[in-house]
Amino acid sequence: MVSKIKGEFQYFKSMPHGMRVLLITNMIYSMVLPIIEVFVSAYIMRSESNPSLVLKYQLAVFTGIPITFVVNGYLLNHIKVAHLYSVGMLLSGVSMFIMMFLENLNLTAIVVSGFLMGLSYGFFWANRDFLALATTNDDNRNYYYGLETFFYTISAIIIPAFVGLLFFYTDEFNWFGGGQIVSYRLLTVLVFALTITSTVIIHRGKFEKPKLKKFIYFKFDQLWNKLLVLSALKGLAQGYLVTVPAILILKLVGDEEILSTVVSISGVIAAITLYLLGRFTKPNHRIYIFAIAYIIFFIGAFTHAYLFSALGVIIFILSKVLYQPLHDISYFPIQLRVIDILTVKEGKSEFSYILNHEFGLYFGRVIGIGLFLLLAVYISDTVALRYSLIIIGIVQLLSIPLAKHIINKSK
Question: Which parts pass through the membrane (predicted)?
């Protein structure tokens, strides 16, 4: 067992230096993501008991992302990519600080905090995608995304469990006065510490600063237009996956401690599966992993809609924890492979595709969140929580034949 672990470590060391630095940075920052994706939504729901308000927060987040992508494109000509990457990580802590330390949480505070979180995501994802593209190739991208999503999944196990213990002991031993608010503020301090650590590590890499004379285009190759449709289908579910699980847990299951336990337990199988898939699968296996991910999501969404109970919620969250990493390990290499081909064919900068892709995601996110809000406003919150996910799950199945077509055209 020890020799196998050493062998895997040696394999990791054989990867390019920039790729290793990026992976280590993302490993640290992966411990932040479960907090800002799950427990910020739970905090809003806990404070206001309004699912629509949580989705409005998420809409503000998603609006800030594409705006930041555009700004990031201009800044890349003047500021090192590692600096911009660091800004993204640090802004997530600032956004949490604003929300958690305000005495009165109103719509304005939620929107401002959400928009700032969107800025943090924008700087983080724009530069992460650019660095991943620059430090990997098609042969090692399965390994890169397999290891990266392995980190994210392990964090999805450890961090929620830690947060659950934090909530328990804060109340049990009356730390800093006790109570839910104190627990959330301690989480904010933890986020700042982790983002600072990630910032220090990313600056150990030597990354070239790109020169982007032009990066905004409106006409692209047909292959890219098809990938944009795929990105919009992906975006449909994203708003739900970072907000609705927390809402469902608090409404149908219990409190944050149960939320922590469910998310942690469901990640064990996913973590082991992901590392093995990333280590041993080849580019031709991506479509199978992609299809399995969407089928799992559909099964979870259908079960939730049919049962609409604590058991249904738990099954859906189990499917979500499996779906997300399986989807990422297959989707991102498909996206980057298309960019590799089209940068040569069209002569456009790599960042122009990264930027345009984000607007495809944004279009899908707005439609997805809009569906929930329409159902909530014109029918009820209960109908929106019960049926919006199954609608999304059905539509997303269209991604499978489209992804297969894109892969075939990218060979």
Answer: 21-45, 57-75, 82-101, 107-126, 147-169, 181-202, 223-252, 258-277, 289-317, 359-379, 385-403
The CA distance from 96 to 105, in Å, is 12
What digits encode the pLDDT tens for the residues 246-272? Answer: 677 666 665 555 555 665 666 666 666
The secondary structure of residue 157, as a DSSP letter, is: H
Per-residue pLDDT tens over the stretch 142-175? 888 878 877 877 787 777 777 777 777 777 766 6
Lookup: tokens for 58: 């998420």
Tell me how crowded residue 177 is: count the other CB atoms within 10 A of its CB: 8
Confirm if 243 and 54 have CB atoms less than 8 A apart. Answer: yes
Q: How many domains are there within the chain?
A: 1
Q: Write b or e for each residue in 178-208: b if 16 or more Cβ atoms lie within 10 A of its Cβ, otherwise e.
A: eebbbbbbbbbebbbebbebbbebbbebebe
Smallest CA-to-CA distance from 287 within 142, 82, 181, 190 is with 142
Handedness of CA 293, 294, 295, 300 (dihedral sign): positive
User: Are 131 and 22 within 8 A, CB to CB?
Assistant: yes
Measuring CA to CA, how many Å separate 344 from each of 141, 227, 380?
19, 17, 50
**Structure confidence by residue, pLDDT tens digits, 352-384:** 898 899 999 989 988 888 888 888 888 887 888
User: Coil, strand or helix: which one is 79?
Assistant: coil
Alpha-carbon gap, residue 158 to 271, rounded angstroms: 11
Helices (H), 102-140: 107-135
User: Which of 241, 245, 228 lies closest to 362, judged by CA?
Assistant: 228
Which range of residues forms the domain containing residue 68?
15-204+220-409
Residue 43 within a domain: yes
The Cβ of residue 375 has, within 10 Å, a number of other Cβ atoms equal to 19
The two three-digit tokens of residue 197, written as one number: 């650590």
Residue 248: inside a domain: yes
CB 70 within 8 A of CB 216: yes
First to last CA, the chain: 38
Under DSSP, the state recorded for 15 is: S
Amino acid at 226: K
Residue 178 · residue 281 · CB < 8 Å: no
DSSP states along 177-236: G-SHHHHHHHHHHHHHHHHHHHHHHHTTS--PPP--S----S---HHHHHHHHHHHHHHH
Please indicate, yes or no, if residue 38 is contained in any of the structural domains: yes
Residue 231 confidence class, pLDDT cut points 50, 70, 90: very high
Distance of alpha carbon 404 from alpha carbon 183, whole angstroms: 46
CATH code (residue 192): 1.20.1250.20
